[in-house]
Write a structure and sequence with these properties.
Layout: H1 12-17, H2 26-34, E1 40-44, H3 50-55, E2 61-66, H4 69-77, E3 82-84, E4 98-104, H5 113-123, E5 124-135, H6 140-147, H7 170-179, E6 182-188, E7 192-193, E8 201-202, H8 203-208, E9 215-222
Parallel strand pairs: 1-2, 1-4, 2-3, 4-5
Antiparallel strand pairs: 5-9, 6-9, 7-8
Length: 224
């Protein structure tokens, strides 16, 4: 059977069309604030490097890896240090090299999450930090959609699929991080949405009721 072009680790057409995030996106701001100053940082799945630009403001060395050749070329054209790499394979870096690794909206696309986290540990320094975000399957909006028998924005074989192959709650993401000897030191979320398109949202409530927020955002320490 021929595989649908949109049913893959990521939907290339959707991915490229939605990669040009606003630099001031709330998730970007939260993740950037969790990064210490003067760190050597790797951003996984960095696209054309918009988040690298944010991190460059207070860090000495920031680079990224990205699977899309088009986006890598665009980032390199803008003077950013980006390598092309498939995160399902061994990362193109030596052991214990980075102080901080960021992975924004990546783990939900990964088939072998154990391998993914082992590779992160391998190239992350002892006591270094992983800052990771992923969509929250238990967000308030999704709970309400399920209550009324509506598909809670879970990817299917549709043209607008983002290619998500797994979903997490705060607890399930913490569990897999703990399994790989990461100690969660900070958990938060970006917003609680009250509409499908995210037009009506509350950043304030997401800080109080983080487990109901749209995204799970965690900072975890690499315990060797």
């Amino acid at each position: 059977m021929k595989k649908s072009k949109s049913f893959a680790t990521f939907n290339k057409q959707y991915y490229n069309a939605n990669e040009n995030y606003n630099e001031l996106d709330e998730r970007f701001k939260i993740m950037a604030n969790l990064v210490d100053k003067n760190q050597k940082i790797l951003d996984l799945g960095c696209g054309s490097g918009n988040f690298i630009k944010v991190l460059n403001r207070k860090n000495k060395s920031v680079e990224g890896v990205e699977i899309s050749q088009e986006l890598v070329k665009l980032g390199q054209k803008n003077g950013l240090k980006i390598k092309i790499a498939d995160l399902h394979q061994t990362f193109p870096y030596r052991n214990n090299i980075f102080d901080t690794i960021t992975a924004g909206e990546i783990i939900e696309h990964i088939h072998d999450t154990d391998f993914f986290l082992k590779e992160i540990k391998r190239i992350l320094k002892p006591n270094g930090f992983l800052i990771i975000s992923t969509p929250n399957i238990a967000t308030l909006g999704r709970r309400l959609m399920l209550l009324f028998g509506i598909n809670p924005m879970i990817d299917t074989c549709l043209e607008n699929s983002a290619g998500h192959i797994r979903y997490f709650t705060k607890k399930s993401l913490e569990n897999i991080l703990n399994k790989h000897n990461f100690e969660v030191v900070n958990f938060t979320s970006d917003s609680i949405n009250f509409s499908n398109n995210g037009r009506f949202k509350s950043y304030f409530l997401a800080k109080i009721f983080s487990t109901l927020g749209a995204r799970i955002i965690i900072k975890a320490k690499n315990i060797k």
